[in-house]
């Protein structure tokens, strides 16, 4: 049971009564007892407020001084969360000395140890675990940090800003002092100390300054940092070119650590990263890993302007920095690789992960209105839907208009802690438009349904698109501003020229062969004139808004669009819709006791795509490979109010098998043609080639044809690069064949001392679709290389099992749920943030059949009775609330 919970509300926001102008920190590092001296220059902002209430958690208080006067215990109030001081004067210096224990910090928040090194994580509210402070993002201060530590074990001492002094001290100790000239909130504070090596490069900024770039890691991993460094350099150049943003300090440091709760953290001038998003080479990292490194390096770098220079007024504004920075990193990756492929990847993730969140019990708007534990709000909604909402501005204003808005935002708010309204106002003012309606996207949760009907008027040659918006479960939903990008195709597959009817001249903007319809009402019609014959509409091109589009497409129209649409996103989307229809149809057949039967439409599209590959007609193999990929299970589950999980899993698996079987020879031809041995290079064409080849291998393996096993084994044994090795091994991991298992064992032997690669082995074991899957995962957590202390390892076993091994997790005995609940309760004691994350699959209980619902709810109730952290409490209670 959780002792006491405190709900924070956006409506209660009050500016701070005190300002902290400067912070002088000094750390005497010892693994079990680090002494932190914190000198704050405090200024009172309101003459009447005499109480300075500083946040602090898990701190041993050593002493408090105000203007060098030591306070007695009776001079202050202190409890589990606060230290309250009476401040009579307008300005004073408060000195607080505390002691913390980094070694025993398993929550990985505040100051902790990873791999024998010291590091910190302060966002959202971790700084209060280092020292007493006004731990809120609108308190901006100048920091000077001195670190003292044993020199032989901690040769490297880092903090934010520029190094201003360093030197030796008696007894083998040494110190370094860092000064950050930019005001910042305490969540951006960072400290790293230990035995680390680095690679160094330089960047010549647009203003001519030379910036030193360093990436720190264990000396054994230095050779895997080059890709991260190149990614950083590309990001710096891109932000100068696209948004005119130049880096401000003389040095930019990135440190890779193995034990980290999330991907990375944008601390000013000293980013701390999960090593998964830094280390990459062809032998150990897949194409997806390389892309992940590039995107996360870029994301954290872009935060320097969108997050650090301009930060959030309070945590309810989180999407201000996260939605915007995700949008920026998406645009960067689109430019580096391919805009169409990147859009498909992002929308796949949005629909498979964010849409279920938006329709589940933890649904919240991109600007949450309340929270118990802020760490629970670093969600797909705040990040990815937030990025989609930022994209809406660009779609509405055009790229140039968006850039003007960004310029004004930077000009107005540099050095401030602001709100999402400030961002919107800058966009509106720079373009002289009214964007007030965009507010609804920030405060209404749930994915809007966009229902479209079309009508062709043959007499007047007019074509009408009627749109209707609603949000399920929100009866009085206010209309949102939804830009709908559309195109019309002739029966020959040619794009039609678009002329808006006079009455919609203001609500339709033409862009090449598309039109952007501005839907502002709950219901609204848009009309085009001069349409000679009934066209085929291509709706919601580029996925121009994060909505669920309902339109009664006929199968032949989808087949037509999958081939002819000029919008690459909608070509892919049409093929997906056909596959979804096929799966849903077959689920019904299976439920009636009939057998799986592959439908003709998707099969024809599949064959055409494959033939294009084999004839060398495919322009982008990655797009081809995506179109051949079936919708993933989470997206399919999302299609049902209540899913028959067993029937769906069977249909999904049989569809792959049927396609693999039917087009075996075409798949094999494509596979052989693309399976060229060449040195690994991370570039668009090679990535696409590997993706297409591996898609073929997956279908060939799914066909269950006996002659395919040697192909996968040969690809594994060739050890060409980790992308090819891992796809081969994934297909083998489900097989009971001895040779397949021998490859799994071989992989373990090769990589047992490389944590990031070993995570992949654990993940394959945990996701293997085998009859004894639950026993296997129970064994995995007893494996000597398993550790609850390392979040990556926990995610690769527990997280992967519950999200990807659906047959085993949802087994009707309920044992999969029970096991997950055990894991959550275990982690609740040591690392609540990770515990709360791996809980997600149970929060989706309402999508399953009654029997499974009861089993999942029983585990949620058990967790609710035993969990102690507010992280887990908040999610479990929300999940149970809707059940009552
Ligand atoms: N801002 C951090 C996330 C912090 C998460 C706190 N639990 C990384 C990022 O979004 O860039
Ligand atoms: Zn971020």
Secondary-structure blueprint:
Elements: E1 8-9, E2 18-28, E3 34-44, E4 51-55, E5 60-66, E6 69-70, E7 76-78, E8 82-86, E9 91-100, E10 110-114, E11 117-121, E12 141-150, E13 156-159, E14 162-169, E15 173-184, E16 191-194, E17 197-204, E18 210-217, H1 226-243, E19 251-257, E20 264-265, E21 270-274, H2 287-302, E22 311-312, H3 318-336, H4 339-358, E23 370-371, H5 380-413, E24 417-418, H6 420-431, H7 439-443, E25 449-457, E26 462-470, E27 482-489, E28 508-511, E29 514-519, E30 523-528, E31 536-538, E32 548-550, H8 555-564, H9 568-591, H10 600-614, H11 621-627, H12 633-637, H13 645-662, H14 664-674, H15 684-702, H16 709-718, H17 722-733, H18 738-751, H19 755-767, H20 773-780, H21 791-804, H22 806-809, H23 815-830, H24 832-838, H25 840-843, H26 850-866, H27 870-881
Parallel strand pairs: 2-12, 18-19, 19-21, 22-24, 25-32
Antiparallel strand pairs: 1-23, 2-3, 3-9, 4-8, 5-6, 5-9, 7-8, 10-11, 12-15, 13-16, 14-15, 17-18, 20-21, 25-26, 26-30, 27-29, 27-31, 28-29
Helix pairs in contact: 1-2, 2-3, 3-4, 3-5, 4-5, 5-6, 8-9, 8-10, 9-10, 9-11, 9-13, 10-14, 11-15, 13-15, 14-15, 15-17, 16-17, 17-19, 18-19, 19-20, 19-21, 23-24, 23-26, 24-27, 26-27
The protein binds (3S)-3,7-diaminoheptanoic acid and zinc ion.
């Amino acid at each position: 049971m959780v002792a006491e919970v405190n709900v924070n509300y956006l409506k209660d926001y009050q500016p701070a009564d005190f300002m902290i102008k400067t912070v002088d920190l000094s750390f005497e590092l010892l693994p079990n007892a680090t002494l932190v001296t914190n000198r704050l220059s405090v200024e009172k902002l309101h003459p009447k407020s005499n109480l300075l209430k500083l946040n602090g958690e898990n701190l041993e208080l050593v002493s408090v001084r105000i203007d060098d006067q030591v306070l007695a215990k009776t001079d202050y109030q202190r409890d589990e969360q606060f230290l309250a001081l009476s401040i009579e004067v307008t300005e004073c210096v408060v000195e607080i000395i505390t002691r913390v224990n980094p070694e025993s910090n398993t929550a990985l928040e505040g100051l902790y140890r990873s791999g024998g090194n010291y590091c910190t994580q302060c966002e959202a509210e971790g700084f209060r675990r280092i020292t007493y402070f006004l731990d809120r993002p609108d308190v901006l201060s100048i920091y000077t940090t001195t670190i003292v530590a044993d020199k032989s074990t901690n040769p490297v001492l880092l903090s934010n800003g520029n190094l201003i002094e360093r030197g030796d001290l008696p007894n083998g100790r040494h110190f370094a002092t860092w000064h950050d000239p930019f005001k910042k909130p305490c969540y951006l504070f960072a400290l790293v100390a230990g035995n680390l090596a680095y690679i160094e490069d330089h960047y010549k900024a647009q203003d001519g300054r030379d910036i030193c770039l360093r990436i720190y890691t264990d000396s054994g991993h230095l050779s895997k940092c080059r890709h991260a460094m190149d990614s950083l350099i590309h990001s710096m150049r891109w932000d100068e070119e696209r948004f005119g943003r130049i880096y401000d300090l003389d040095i930019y440091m990135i440190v890779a650590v193995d034990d980290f709760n999330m991907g990375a953290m944008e601390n000013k001038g000293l980013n701390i990263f999960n090593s998964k998003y830094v280390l990459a080479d062809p032998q150990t990292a897949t194409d997806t890993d390389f892309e992940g490194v590039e995107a996360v390096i870029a994301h954290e770098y872009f935060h320097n302007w969108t997050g650090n220079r301009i930060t959030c007024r309070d945590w309810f504004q989180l999407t201000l920095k996260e939605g915007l920075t995700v949008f920026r990193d998406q645009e960067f990756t689109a430019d580096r690789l391919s805009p169409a492929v990147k859009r498909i990847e992002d929308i796949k993730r949005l629909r498979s992960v964010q849409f279920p969140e938006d329709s589940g019990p933890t649904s919240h708007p991109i600007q949450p209105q309340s929270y118990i534990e802020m760490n629970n709000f670093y969600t797909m909604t705040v990040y990815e839907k937030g990025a989609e909402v930022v994209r809406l501005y660009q779609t509405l204003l055009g790229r140039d208009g968006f850039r003007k808005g960004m310029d004004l935002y930077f000009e107005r708010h540099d050095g401030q802690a602001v709100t999402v309204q400030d961002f919107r106002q800058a966009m509106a003012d720079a373009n002289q438009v009214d964007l007030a309606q965009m507010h609804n996207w920030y405060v209404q949760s749930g994915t809007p349904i966009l229902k479209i009907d079309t009508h062709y008027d043959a007499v007047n040659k007019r074509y009408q698109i009627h749109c209707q918006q609603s949000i399920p479960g929100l009866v009085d939903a206010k209309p949102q501003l939804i830009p709908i990008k559309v195109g019309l195709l002739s029966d020959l597959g040619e794009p039609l020229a678009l002329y808006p009817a006079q009455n919609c001249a203001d609500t339709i903007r033409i862009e090449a062969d598309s039109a952007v319809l501005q839907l502002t009402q709950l219901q609204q019609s848009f009309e085009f004139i001069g349409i000679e014959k009934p066209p085929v509409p291509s709706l919601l091109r580029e996925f121009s808004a994060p909505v669920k589009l309902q339109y009664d497409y006929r199968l032949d129209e989808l087949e037509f669009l999958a081939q002819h649409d000029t919008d690459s996103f909608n070509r892919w989307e049409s093929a997906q819709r056909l596959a979804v229809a096929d799966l849903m149809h077959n689920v019904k057949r299976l439920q009636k006791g009939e057998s799986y039967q592959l439908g003709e439409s998707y099969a024809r599209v599949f064959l055409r795509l494959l033939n294009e590959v084999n004839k060398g007609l495919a322009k982008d193999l990655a797009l081809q490979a995506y179109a051949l990929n079936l919708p993933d299970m989470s997206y399919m589950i999302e299609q049902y109010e209540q899913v028959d999980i067993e029937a769906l899993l069977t249909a999904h698996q049989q569809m792959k098998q049927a396609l693999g079987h039917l087009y075996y020879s075409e798949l094999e031809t494509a596979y052989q043609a693309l399976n060229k041995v060449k040195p690994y290079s991370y570039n668009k064409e090679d990535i696409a080639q590997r993706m297409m080849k591996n898609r073929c291998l997956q279908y060939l393996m799914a066909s269950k044809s006996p002659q395919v096993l040697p192909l996968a084994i040969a690809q594994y044994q060739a050890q060409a690069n980790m992308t090819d090795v891992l796809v081969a091994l994934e297909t083998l991991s489900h097989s009971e064949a001895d040779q397949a298992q021998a490859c799994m064992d071989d992989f373990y032997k090769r990589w047992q001392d490389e944590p990031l690669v070993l995570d992949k082995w654990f993940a394959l074991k945990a996701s293997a679709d085998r009859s004894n899957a639950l026993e296997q995962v129970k064994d995995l957590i007893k494996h000597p290389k398993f550790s609850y202390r390392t979040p990556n390892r926990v995610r690769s076993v527990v997280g992967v099992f519950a999200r990807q091994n659906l047959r085993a997790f949802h087994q009707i005995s309920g044992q999969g749920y029970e096991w997950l609940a055990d894991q959550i309760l275990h982690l609740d004691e040591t690392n609540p943030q990770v515990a709360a994350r791996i809980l997600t699959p149970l929060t989706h209980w309402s999508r399953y059949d009654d029997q499974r619902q009861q089993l999942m709810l029983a585990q949620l109730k058990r967790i609710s009775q035993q969990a102690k952290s507010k992280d887990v409490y908040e999610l479990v209670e929300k999940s149970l609330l809707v059940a009552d």
